[in-house]
Amino acid sequence: MHLPEDFIRHTREIMGDELFNRFLDALDKEPPVSIRLNPLKLTGIEGGEQVPWCQYGFYLESRPQFTLDPRLHQGAYYVQEASSMFVHHVLSQWVTSAVTMLDLCAAPGGKTTCAIAALPRGSMIYANEPIHKRAQVLSENIQKWLSDTNEKDLATRVVTTNSYPKDYSKSNITFDVILCDVPCSGEGMFRKDPNAIKEWSTAKVRQCQQLQQSIVEDAWRCLRPGGLLIYSTCTLNTIENEQNIQWILDNFNCEVLPVSTSPEWHITGSLLKGFDQPVYRFIPGTSRGEGLFMAAIRKGQGEESKMIDKRSKKSNLLPPAPCSLPPALTILEPTFLNGLHEAADAPRIEIARPQAISYLRREAITLPPDTPRGIVMLTYEGNALGLAKNIGNRANNLYPKEWRIRTTYI
20 to 30 Å CA-CA from 402: which of 141, 155, 247, 334? Predict the structure, then answer.
């Protein structure tokens, strides 16, 4: 794998030869495959080895054809690299009562769905993505994750928004927990995404650092005193990681919180000389996952920062209902999820895998002769896939057009 010389020089310098050589060796190997189960739909998986920092995460021996597994499309599990599941461990340690949480840069939804299972009952998540196309993917994944559930089953409610961090900053609403999984230079994904290597440059690293600081500044206005900010990137350098944590410490009243870990997890701490705050870095070849950096930061109770303008002094508690949100915030209506809830009492018709694949391709399917006419809920292995309208000789497919799978082979 050909890496940029500037990247090699900086990364070898901060890691040292031994750690860097293990990293280089890992880049030429297949990345581990891991999934995270939805505990409301799937309680176990054959042949999986548990991810130690997430009770619902499992490593797989090989990579199956996920697109043709109906369980993926019904939200029974989420394909997520193991390092990113560390957010479950952080939330489980530091959040012990119901909270309102903002996932500020949430697409495609891995950390949001991870948080749903980690947060205490009665919590609420606002999952936000600024880029509209990515926000649609986020909404799709969350709707599938929450489908076939009800208020009694679900410990956490979720609202999806398509707004910029500055819109939240101007809204004067506040949160107990904010996750800033910020856009970054992507060094930790070099093994999985060759485009990340092509797009990397020292200039991009500095541009990302400035963007990350801007996002954190907007997020800070929305964080309640005593609240928790989780900062994460999928990059390895200290410029976007330790230096940004130091920037937060220098400009805001806060402290970096320790997170309990085990030596067997092979998590690396700070790589910046003179910086000894508790931060957590996953490096391919050392830890079993892709590159990730994460830090947990508690906002102080006193004077905030000279960088915060007067708008932050007007912050109110978050409105209790999504419809109460300020107009600056754009809510994505969960039409598929609403449809399933409205049809909760519809007859449930279990279908086999070939029919399920046809349904997910949005093809017309034939149901058993005794299937009632009208709207029915199609299920696979007991969990809902979606709705169909049975008209007798066939059933009209009501699966969302934009979600249909296009893979033509099984």
Answer: 155
Q: Would you say 23 and 285 are in contact if contact means Cβ atoms under 8 Å apart? A: yes
Average pLDDT estimate for 176-184: 98
**DSSP character string of 67-86:** GG-HHHHTTSEEE--GGGGH
Question: Which amino acid makes up residue 5?
Answer: E
- Give the 3-state secondary structure of residue 58: strand
Residue 254 designated active-site: no
pLDDT at 129 over 50: yes
What's the CA gap between 376 and 343, in Å, rounded? 8
Nearest alpha-carbon partner for 269 in 10, 19, 94, 8 = 19
Q: How far apart are CA 170 and CA 311, in angstroms?
A: 7
Per the CB < 8 A criterion, the answer to whether 144 and 360 are in contact is: no
Please, what is the average pLDDT of the chain? Answer: 91
pTM of the model: 0.93
CA distances from 19 to 11, 22, 36, 286 (A): 10, 5, 28, 8
Instruction: Quote the pLDDT of residue 155.
Output: 63
Q: Inform me whether the pLDDT recorded for 60 exceeds 80.
A: yes
Q: Calculate Rg over the CA atoms of the chain.
A: 22
Residue 390 CA: distances (Å) to CA of 323, 338, 386, 387: 34, 20, 13, 10
What is the CB-side half-sphere exposure of residue 279 using CA atoms within 13 A? 25
pLDDT tier, 149 (very low <50, low <70, confident <90, very high otherwise): confident
Cα 389 to Cα 375: distance, rounded to the nearest angstrom:
4
- Cα 369 to chain centroid distance, Å, stands at 42
Q: Which residue has the tokens 């750690």?
A: 19
Query: Using CA atoms, how far apart are residues 398 and 340, in angstroms rounded to an integer?
Result: 11
Catalytic member of 105, 234, 254, 323 = 234
pLDDT tens-digit map of 288-347:
999 999 999 999 986 444 333 333 333 334 444 444 566 679 999 999 999 998 999 999
Read off the DSSP letter of residue 32.
P
Does residue 410 contact residue 70 with C-beta atoms inside 8 Å? no
